[in-house]
Specification:
Radius of gyration: 21 Å
Distance between the termini: 23 Å
Helix content: 40-55%
Number of helices: 17
Order of helices and strands: HEHEHEHHHEEHHEHHHEHEEEHHHEHH
Shape: globular
Number of strands: 11
Largest sheet: 5 strands, mixed
């Protein structure tokens, strides 16, 4: 775990790249020989919002001139279905796929993807962390995907909130990852009591990432697990504490998808979200905000590192062009453009530039403090759920609605939702993933 944590920290923080440096022309593929200019589709589970998709098309993909690439976003289920269907033909439309680590486990047969081991060898001087490359093998002896980018979730804090810190909590505690969820509640209460406004934010809108905050942060921090501990006494404590925090959360949070919007409007002073959904606040008002680690619970400071990769289906209409595209997407220049466009961090092990843009420096400071916190531990995205990923997420979201919003009995709700959760695990036959211990067969709720 320490080795994995160190690698995530190294590539998340030290791997930040200068956005405005490097050549603007499309890098040539690492191999030699002519590359076809036949067009292909890049199908991705990431950047499905209109704003993010346009940013990727205009700021990142536009520089690739070897072949026309059409970017299409897709939910996890349709993503798996389309690639599975295309691989039954000799030639599909999708040339490259992009997904987070867990998305790849949705494929029952990983041999439908090209073995990218030769490409990985050509790209070895890029400095991609070996742990990331190993994760890209997905337990096989083949390189299924090449690591593409990564992200995490942190706190965004308006400096005005510091004057309302409760007794026993200091600015240094907040910035160093030594604030507990209970202290976060006390801080939110102090702000509400002294200003008359609820200025803490947890995005809970229909397109928010609330389920990830529950899965990768609160559940592990309180229970040391997720699936196995779903209805445990520790989980009861967690949900009660979340209810207590929610009493001081801005009511608009139920319709908020991107926390940066409420932070920029001044409605929220302390917000918890994905780095890509906080960055605009740091960009527009860098003097008003700072980034800080997630709070910690009884089991420590757990945080989710989201690793995404690029793979080539064997049905790709332009395999050489697809390899050139992956080469392009993992260059320093383009990794920097991706960081600038959608605030996903590079996977390359390169020095932190002295002229890093202020808003990215703010995020880097928060990410670094989170990964270096003494009791920090990494949680992975759900793995092996395939088309049932939405059903899995719905369990946590329904639990949130029933307990936090509607005020139903915590243990009763957990018992009922745990039964639904177990059905999802049994149907998918998905084994446990971090932070739950390894399992043989479907992960089991204890």
């Amino acid at each position: 775990m320490d080795k994995l944590r160190t690698s995530f920290a190294l590539a998340l923080v030290i791997g930040l790249l200068a956005v405005a440096c490097g050549p603007s022309a499309t890098p040539q593929p690492s191999g030699s020989g002519a590359v076809s200019n036949e067009p292909f589709v890049m199908l991705s589970t990431q950047f499905n919002t209109v704003t993010e998709s346009e940013a990727i098309r205009k700021q990142v993909l536009a520089g690739f001139t070897i072949a026309p690439v059409d970017f299409l976003g897709a939910a996890a289920g349709p993503f798996v279905d389309r690639i599975t269907a295309e691989t039954k033909t000799s030639k599909g439309q999708v040339g490259v796929i992009g997904g987070v680590h867990g998305d790849f486990a949705g494929f029952s047969d990983l041999t439908i993807f090209e073995d990218l081991t030769p490409l990985a060898q050509k790209l070895k001087d890029r400095g991609i962390a070996q742990e990331f490359m190993d994760l890209g093998k997905l337990g096989t002896n083949r390189q299924v995907y090449i690591p593409w980018m990564q992200a995490t979730y942190i706190l965004g804090v308006n400096k005005q909130a510091l004057q309302y810190l409760p007794s026993g909590l200091t600015e240094a505690n907040v910035k160093q990852g030594n604030m507990t969820y209970t202290q976060l509640k006390d801080w939110c209460k102090s702000i509400a009591d002294k200003t008359g406004q609820k200025r803490c934010g947890i995005p809970a809108g229909p397109m928010s990432l609330l389920h990830r905050l529950i899965q990768g942060y609160m559940y592990p921090a309180y229970t040391g697990g997720l699936v196995t501990t779903y209805k445990s006494s520790d989980a009861v404590t967690m949900w009660q504490d979340l209810k207590d925090i929610w009493a001081y959360v801005n009511p608009k949070s139920l319709t908020t998808d991107f926390e940066q919007e409420d932070m920029l409007s001044g409605q929220v002073w302390v917000g918890f979200d994905h780095v890509a959904r906080l960055v605009e606040a740091f960009k527009q008002k860098p003097n008003d905000f700072f980034a800080a680690p997630a709070p910690k619970g009884p089991k420590g400071l757990y945080y989710m590192s989201v690793l995404a990769g690029l793979a080539i289906p064997k049905s790709s209409p332009n395999k050489a062009g697809a390899e050139a595209f992956i080469d392009y997407m993992t260059t320093s220049d383009v990794q920097g453009k991706t960081l600038n466009a959608v605030a996903f961090f590079p996977v390359l092990d390169k020095p932190l530039p002295a002229d890093l843009a202020p808003h990215l420096k703010i995020e880097a400071d928060g990410v670094q403090a989170q990964s270096k916190a003494p009791d920090a531990k990494v949680a992975l995205l759900p793995i092996g759920l395939g088309a049932q990923g939405g059903a899995f997420n719905k369990v946590q979201l329904d639990t949130f609605q029933r307990i936090v919003v509607r005020g139903e009995d915590i243990q009763k709700v957990l018992n009922e939702q745990a039964t639904i959760l177990q059905t999802v695990m049994n149907d998918t036959k998905a084994p446990c993933w971090r932070p739950d211990p390894p399992s043989t067969g479907p992960c089991q709720v204890k």
